[in-house]
Design a protein that fits this description.
heterodimer, A: about 210 residues, Cytochrome Bc1 Complex, Chain D, domain 2, two-stranded antiparallel ribbon, 5 helices, B: mainly alpha, 15 helices, 2 strands
Chain lengths: ~210, ~500
């Protein structure tokens, strides 16, 4: 193999093959999927993320949450995502069409978050969990995010946002309160917005065997 | 020996023996590559140390989350990302540049032209890496795996890379006529593939993002191909060069080399989508990725057989040659990690191993046990020829080899076992014999997290060993550069002076 141009042609064509097959083909097919309009209500799903949640997604990206949390539910029967309560159906491409950046993730050091907003967890739980995961989930290896909170002196009325019921080692000094910063509020709003909003025709689970 | 580009020895004394003239020519080529290769090696080793520190911090955090937990820039998501990017774009890529430039000049039998291009490119590449890392630490990461550098760093990296690619094509263009060696195929392909992958990924994910589920496809087409079409070809080019060079005999089979190269080129670039099995993507594209991943057995086994048959009868040389020791460790790791990688793409195994520490162990098996070890071997060969000095200390080389080899083995084995356990606990179910109702064996996710902790601790211990190996290497490298010029006729360093040394060393 001594002919430079022939070598180059082969090198070019091999990568062009997968670029065409994996990227271009899918760009022209699943890249064109749009929202789904519900016939009864006329509402298009999925809906755009609300403003605060959008800001929270930015915080999620800044803190690198993606490295331990996925946002993709596997179909019932493949893995056990449904049994773990992470979603009753698999995630489908249409679930993501309103997102300008997909945060699918590839690692589950922590649980999947595709539908965390559907779980019975309120904002107070999320704040405590972010302040220090040991408060809500002792033994977790998730890092604490104390920098998303501020300890400040109570001036006049205590803030309604102040976090209540902190154990002594986390409790603020007398006359002070721990409040979530705007970033923490945005992040929690984002987490609580995450859910499978609508069951699309293509998302109905098929082929559900009895498990393992 | 062509007369188009005669060496100084040949010009002075045309009757000089061919072997002497050959050595003189290579020596002149080596000298011409000295400045850029030194630059890239020094930068690479600097980033290796930086990346090692990030690695240790990230590893400690995963079993001791309160460690350095107060400052935002030190949070796990940042440090882990800084580790990946400093070792991939700082250490491994700079080292790949050094090896590629040196090999390309030697194999093309031509002195280095246009050094200025490489100076500028080297400077901008490392500036881009520094800016990108600072960006990650201040929270500007894109959160796109393997592409976390913020948009203000990446155009610099692309331009720098393009300059190096252009330089390599010029070097190849002015090669001496004759056979193009298999290492040159790999080098040319890698230097062409990477800028294509990088520019498409930046364009389609950061600057003009594509819609919806196409993004993860672009992401993993890129991320897997960085390993498969950039680091793997550079590593294989080095093995194909150094194995016969150190042993003093030709590579076993030209045809196996060609089969290995073209099957890798054809199959590897489709394999990346196996990172998305189970994800929200069309089944056909995932299946195609699985098929390609399994077809990768062909180039891997072909290349493995070719290297093994070249080594056959020469395993005794592992006792004395530092280069051979690292290269053979890397070559064997390549075969192992690739075969495991193919297995990981099979749906039934992927169901278990996906989303777990098994994948992290696998990535280190490839990028460290294979690529990094091969590059260490290459550096042990290149440096004496670039400096005209010998490595000052055989014990330091032994420390480097054993701490890194044992360290990465503990890392990979420990974390793979931990990952399998984690994966099994995540999906294992039991069916009630009476009602037939299916339930999880380990219903509490937190229990799974706790069960992985011992394996994460073993990873930190392995990391400490690898750090010791890196420190020995860095100290040795600096010592070699700073020591006074060696006397003529100094003997090359050998790990075992009693071992037989049959082959000639050019």
């Amino acid at each position: 193999m001594n002919k430079g141009p022939l070598l180059f042609l082969g090198i070019f064509l091999t990568l062009a093959f997968s670029w065409t097959g994996i990227i271009l083909t899918n760009h022209l097919t699943i890249g064109r999927i749009g929202t789904y309009v519900d016939a009864d209500t006329g509402t298009a799903f999925p809906q755009a993320e609300p403003g605060l949640a959008r800001q929270g997604k930015q915080v999620y990206q800044e803190l690198g949450c993606i490295y331990c949390h996925t946002q993709q539910v596997r179909r019932p029967g493949f893995g056990a995502d449904d049994l773990r309560g992470w979603g009753e159906r698999q995630s489908v491409p249409r679930d993501y069409v309103q997102q300008d950046r997909l945060l699918l993730g590839t690692m589950r050091t922590g649980p999947d978050l595709m539908t965390v907003g559907s779980r019975p967890l309120n904002a107070d739980w999320h704040y405590k969990h972010l302040l220090d995961p040991q408060l809500t989930s002792p033994g977790s290896n998730m890092p604490p995010f104390p920098f998303l909170f501020a300890t400040r002196r109570i001036v006049g009325q205590p803030s309604p946002k102040a976090i209540q019921g902190l154990p002594p080692q986390y409790a603020p000094p007398p006359g002070h309160e721990v409040v979530p910063t705007h970033r923490a509020e945005a992040l929690v709003a984002y987490l609580m917005s995450l859910k499978h909003e609508y069951d699309y025709p293509e998302s109905i689970p098929v082929n559900v065997p009895g498990g393992h | 020996m062509s007369s188009a580009n005669p060496s100084l020895a040949a010009s002075l004394k045309p009757g000089t023996s061919e072997a002497t003239a050959e050595r003189a020519l290579l020596s002149e080529i080596d000298v011409s590559t000295r400045r850029p290769v030194f630059f890239f090696l020094c930068a690479a080793i600097g980033w290796l140390l930086v990346g090692t520190v990030f690695a240790l911090i990230a590893s400690f955090k995963l079993h001791n989350p309160a460690f350095l937990g107060q400052a935002e820039w030190l949070t796990f998501g940042n440090i882990r990302t800084a580790h990946l990017n400093s070792v991939v774009y700082g250490w491994a890529t700079n080292a790949a540049f050094a090896v590629a430039i040196w090999l390309m000049a030697r194999l093309s039998r031509t002195q280095l032209r246009h050094l200025g291009i490489l100076d500028v490119a080297g400077f901008f590449w490392n500036l881009g890496v520094a800016i990108g890392l600072a960006g990650i630490l201040r929270g500007d990461s894109t959160s796109i795996e393997w592409l976390e550098f913020p948009a203000y760093a990446t155009p610099l990296l692309f331009v720098a890379y393009a300059l190096i690619g252009i330089w390599a094509i010029i070097a190849f263009r002015f090669r001496q006529p004759g056979h193009v060696y298999v290492s040159q195929w790999y080098l040319l392909a890698a230097l062409f593939w990477f800028p294509w992958l990088y520019s498409i990924a930046q364009l389609m994910l950061v600057f003009a993002p594509v819609r919806g589920a196409v993004q993860p496809l672009v992401n993993w087409w890129f991320a897997h191909n960085v390993l498969g079409l950039w680091f793997t070809p550079i590593g294989l080019a080095a093995i194909y060069y150094f194995l016969p060079k150190v042993l003093g005999k030709p590579i076993h089979s030209y045809y196996l080399s060609a089969l290995g190269f073209w099957s890798l080129a054809l199959f590897y670039n489709w394999a990346g989508v196996h990172h998305l099995i189970g994800g929200p993507l069309p089944a056909w594209v995932l299946s195609a990725g699985i098929v390609a991943s399994l077809l990768m057995v062909i180039p891997v086994v072909t290349t493995g057989i070719n290297h093994h048959l070249t080594m056959l009868g020469s395993f005794g040389r592992l006792q004395d040659s530092p280069t051979l020791r690292f290269i053979v460790f890397g070559g064997v790791s390549y075969t192992l990690t690739s075969l495991i990688g193919s297995a990981m793409a099979v749906r039934s195994f992927n169901e278990l191993a996906h989303f777990t520490h098994f994948t992290v162990a696998h990535a280190h098996h490839g990028l460290y046990a294979f690529f990094t070890m091969v590059v260490f071997g290459a550096i042990y060969y290149m440096m004496p020829r670039l400096t005209g000095r010998e490595w000052p200390s055989a014990p330091l080389i032994s420390v480097h080899f054993w701490f890194c080899a044992v360290g990465i083995t503990i890392y990979v084995v420990g974390l793979k076992i931990g990952g399998l356990l984690q994966g099994w606990e995540m999906i294992a179910t039991t069916a009630d014999p009476q009602t037939g109702e299916v339930a999880l064996r380990v219903p509490l996710f937190l229990d799974i997290v706790k069960h992985t902790l011992p394996y994460l601790v073993s990873r930190s211990l392995a990391g400490i060993m690898i750090t010791i190996g890196h420190l020995a290497f860095a100290v040795h490298f600096a010592w070699m550069l700073l020591q006074p010029r060696a006397v003529a006729g100094a003997q090359p360093v050998r790990l075992s002076p009693d071992a037989a040394l049959p082959a000639s060393r050019a």
